[in-house]
Amino acid sequence: MAARDPGASVPVRAAVARQAVEWLVELQSGEAGDATRAAVQQWRAAHPEHERAWQHIAAVNARWRGAAVPSPLAHAVLLDTPAVPARPLPRRAAAKTVAALLCAGGGAWLAHQATPWREWRADARTGTGQRRTIVLADGSQVSLNSGSAVDVRFSAGERRLRLVSGDILVSTARDRAARPFIVATAEGELRPLGTRFAVRQHAGSSRVDVFEGAVAIRPRDAGQAPPRVLQAGQQARFSAAAVADTRPADGDSVAWADGMLVASGMRLADFLAELGRHRHGRLGCDAAVADLRVSGSYPLADTGRILDTLRATLPVEIHFITRYWVSVRPARR
Questions:
Q1: Does the residue 72 lie in any domain?
Q2: Residue 191 and residue 155: Cα distance in Å, rounded?
């Protein structure tokens, strides 16, 4: 009897699907120890959605056992046993293998989860804790935050950048051929006018902060309505249908480009959500301390030190189940 995909009819959030793949790649990298394997098991047990994402990969692999699947991948997916290959599969190659298997599996589940697999295939991407800057053919610069991905498509008529996930900081260059520069997100398109700006892809919306020049926003489903133009110092979110009210641009939101996380009265839960983008595994926040406020500038090069600082300055304790499974909760009296 053919293996049945237990999660095929139940949607899984893109972020959870992405985590499942990251854990899988970590397991088969040849560097995973007992702590990593225990963290994977804890992640799977933490929520039924996690297990559905994991089981989908196992089901697809079971259907394709006849394909040339690297043995460490098969072991990691199906048996949850330590993979000890003679030559560990490089993580980039492993990611492509996983993406290929999932695409081969097809079905409704994958249709709902297209974003994670597009990330692995993007022209430029960053993993957890990575940041990079690329220079495009026209001289424009694009900085990618942790866990971000973009596709680049230059043609004779336009310069197009598609933000697949995460957030980017863009400084556009003048084009000799006067081609328009376009940044596409899931909700619409942006046309910068000689500018420096940031774009972040959220679930169901995009956010733009303009620091120099101006940016025209055209939501995907706005029809013939004129675009909304943001000037330097302005910020706005937009959905596929409309642009929200303009607010002041947040310069602190792009401190990551300088390797920093800057907070000014930020909720602890929101601060940890941002910090969690820069470290592997799960970083949780107990509801009892979620509304504590955090201020300061924190170097992202050492996320463990940031947690130590929180413990020293707030009434919280940092609870480590493993190195990859951390929660912040009220300090014991």
A1: yes
A2: 16
Contact 117, 60 (CB under 8 A): no
Q: Smallest Cα–Cα separation from 44: which of 327, 302, 324?
A: 324
HSE-up of residue 154 (Cα within 13 Å, Cβ side) = 10
User: How far apart, in Å, are the Cα atoms of 178 and each of 138, 156, 158, 181?
Assistant: 11, 10, 9, 9
The answer to the question of residue 142 being in a domain is yes
Q: Yes or no: say if 208 and 197 are a contact pair by the CB < 8 Å rule.
A: yes
Beta partners for residue 234, in sequence order: 248
pTM score of the predicted model: 0.70
DSSP 203: S
Q: Which runs of E-coded beta strand occur in the chain?
A: 124-125, 132-135, 141-144, 149-154, 159-165, 167-171, 181-184, 188-201, 206-219, 228-231, 234-238, 247-248, 260-267, 282-285, 293-299, 316-322, 325-330
Q: Which two tokens stand for residue 163?
A: 């933000």
pLDDT at 3 over 60: no
Do 180 and 148 touch, CB atoms closer than 8 A?
no
41-67: pLDDT as tens digits: 888 888 888 888 888 766 654 554 444
Give me the mean pLDDT over the 111-137 stretch: 79
Look at residues 87, 120, 153 and tell me which one is the last residue of a structural domain: 120
- Domain interval for residue 137: 125-251
φ, ψ for residue 306, nearest 5 deg: -65, -40
